[in-house]
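> call design_seq(struct)
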């Protein structure tokens, strides 16, 4: 008889790894079930972490005590801070990863956690009794009992791979699909749908002519993701940029009649913001070229990822078209690109904790919820893992609000609005993005992670120390004044108005023409101190000063909306009793069961008058 676990995590992708590690670190006894122990934390698509808004998520996961940031730092081969030419709210860290090293580091991390056991098998049934999860049954006929279950099945549920007119079952190349679970969940009352994603061909880097491409080097002073003491890179590998052309497009069009997407054999919707190359050509017929990023897959391997060339066309068409791209004239494929279609479950069936409404202590995380991307999956896994532990330990649920993090925006969007296509995070989705920057994720979330026992005492102390250092530096800048004869020459050089009398450094820094790159000169006027502020502290203080007005307005707005988030609605609330509600509003409220007035106000179809009526009914 196998032991009873506190938490069973099904699937060992990015969501499953974070869920298992999070719950186990907090004290739960965890069983991680994966179809293949050799593919734990595999980067199924591009070998990279972070990017626009995604980098903010990785830093938030790290701030809470998750591992994606640390694993990324240990396995990166290049680092770039994107959008530096824009405001700090848009700065987004991104790294190129060593695919094998990333997976190896994750596996070692999980194996070192003594609260995690492993089992290689697929799960085809969850055991439910009286509306509560009891455990799972595997394909080998083995039953594992547990107090909670987290499903992170990725693209494997009834997964089907497409390459031209060829199609076969699978959740990833050379790996079989998971069957049976979708059908059972539907019998339990869950709604399901189909989505699709894709991946480009992999190329032998020895066959490429890099002289015909543009080099894309990493940052001169590379950063990192984790707020812990991981090391920054001292050497980096370059990526490369090339472009398609009309000849490439014409060659690809020759295979359109065999495209599973255009012939209707793929029913699921693909990611709008990461379309296949054939979809780009079809949708943007006016463009005669598209950018291709040539990304190395690691320090040692010659394998190359062709970012921007995702396709499910026949392999011979892929090969022929690739060789008409500059630098790819003699390109040799390791394996062709393909599309994969899979089952997902509309996330409106979940609570903010990612627990399902239908079955107590059953959680969904990752692509099963209709998202795309490693980072989106990892943060869901972390939240599900934390709450799987909390519910077993009979502790309060753990959530992140929209004003606290991109993680909160993502989960609230999913469970409140749902999604009909793979959901990807963007900075534009966050109404408080000036507050939710990548540089301050530790100040926003480490205390929350520490409060539930995930973030370590050392992390918490470090974040508190940083907060105090920033406040002290800002105070020094406010009180330090400079004379006109000390600064006017420099002000002329940066085309800023000269002083006529003493002025504080604070006032000078707020001038729009003085950017962050000019701050170093002004800091020399600060009184000498034994402890010199770190670059991180200086940058954070400068952002707080320069964007003080914007940040203040956002905090006020967040506080106003936060009052509605505090008005809870009971899950058994009887909306039929309120006859004044609109028909659509009542229907949506009954179906989605919002946890708060704030969430109810964001449901499509629930009008402001419906919210006013609810507030009156609740005595507000």
């Amino acid at each position: 008889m196998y032991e009873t676990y506190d938490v069973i995590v099904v699937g060992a992708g990015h969501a499953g790894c974070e869920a298992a590690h999070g719950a186990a670190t907090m004290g739960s006894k965890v069983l991680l079930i994966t179809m293949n122990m050799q593919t734990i934390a595999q980067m199924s698509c591009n070998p990279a972490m972070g990017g626009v808004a995604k980098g903010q998520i990785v830093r938030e996961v790290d701030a809470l005590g998750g591992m994606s940031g640390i694993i990324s730092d240990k396995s990166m081969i290049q680092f770039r801070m994107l959008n530096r030419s824009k405001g700090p709210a848009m700065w987004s860290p991104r790294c190129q990863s060593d695919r094998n090293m990333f997976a190896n580091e994750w596996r070692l991390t999980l194996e070192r956690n003594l609260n995690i056991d492993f089992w290689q098998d697929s799960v085809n049934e969850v055991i439910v009794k009286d509306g509560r999860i009891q455990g799972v049954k595997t394909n080998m006929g083995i039953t594992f009992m547990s107090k909670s279950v987290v499903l992170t099945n990725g693209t494997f549920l009834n997964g089907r791979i497409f390459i031209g007119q060829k199609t076969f079952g699978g959740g990833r190349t050379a790996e079989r699909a998971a069957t049976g679970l979708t059908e059972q969940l539907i019998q339990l009352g869950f709604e399901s749908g189909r989505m699709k994603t894709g991946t480009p061909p992999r190329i032998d880097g020895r066959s490429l002519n890099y002289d015909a491409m543009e080099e894309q080097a990493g940052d001169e002073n590379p950063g990192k993701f984790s707020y812990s003491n991981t090391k920054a890179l001292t050497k980096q590998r370059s990526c490369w940029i090339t472009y398609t052309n009309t000849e490439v497009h014409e060659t690809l069009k020759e295979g359109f009649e065999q495209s599973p997407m255009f012939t209707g054999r793929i029913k699921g919707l693909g990611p709008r913001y990461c379309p296949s190359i054939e979809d780009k050509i079809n949708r943007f017929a006016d463009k005669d070229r598209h950018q291709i990023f040539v990304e190395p897959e690691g320090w040692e391997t010659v394998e190359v990822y062709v970012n921007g060339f995702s396709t499910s066309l026949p392999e011979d068409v892929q090969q022929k078209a690739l060789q008409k791209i500059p630098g790819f004239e003699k390109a040799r494929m390791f394996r062709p690109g393909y599309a994969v279609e899979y089952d997902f479950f509309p996330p409106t069936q979940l609570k903010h904790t990612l627990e399902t409404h239908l079955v107590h202590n059953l959680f969904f995380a990752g692509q099963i919820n209709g998202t795309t991307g490693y980072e989106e999956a990892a943060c869901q896994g972390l939240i599900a893992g934390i709450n799987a532990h909390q519910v077993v330990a009979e502790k309060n649920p753990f959530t992140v609000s929209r004003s606290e993090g991109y993680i909160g925006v993502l989960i609230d969007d999913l469970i409140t609005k749902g999604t009909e296509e793979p959901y990807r995070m963007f900075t534009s989705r966050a109404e408080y993005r000036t507050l939710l920057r990548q540089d301050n994720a530790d100040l926003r979330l480490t205390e929350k992670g520490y409060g539930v026992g995930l973030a370590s005492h050392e992390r918490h102390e470090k974040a508190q120390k940083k907060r105090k250092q920033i406040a002290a530096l800002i105070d020094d800048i406010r009180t330090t004044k400079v004379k006109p004869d000390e600064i006017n020459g420099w002000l002329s050089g940066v085309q800023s108005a000269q002083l006529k009398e003493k002025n504080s450094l604070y006032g000078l820094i707020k001038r729009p023409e003085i950017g962050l790159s000019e701050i170093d000169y002004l800091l020399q006027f600060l009184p000498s101190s034994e402890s010199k502020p770190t670059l991180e502290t200086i940058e954070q203080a400068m952002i707080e000063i320069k964007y003080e007005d914007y940040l203040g307005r956002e905090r006020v707005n967040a506080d106003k909306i936060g009052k509605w988030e505090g008005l809870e609605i009971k899950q058994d609330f009887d909306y039929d009793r309120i006859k004044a509600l609109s028909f659509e509003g009542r229907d949506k409220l009954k179906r989605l069961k919002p946890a708060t007035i704030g969430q109810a106000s964001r449901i499509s179809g629930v009008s402001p008058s419906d919210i006013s009526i609810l507030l009156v009914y609740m005595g507000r």
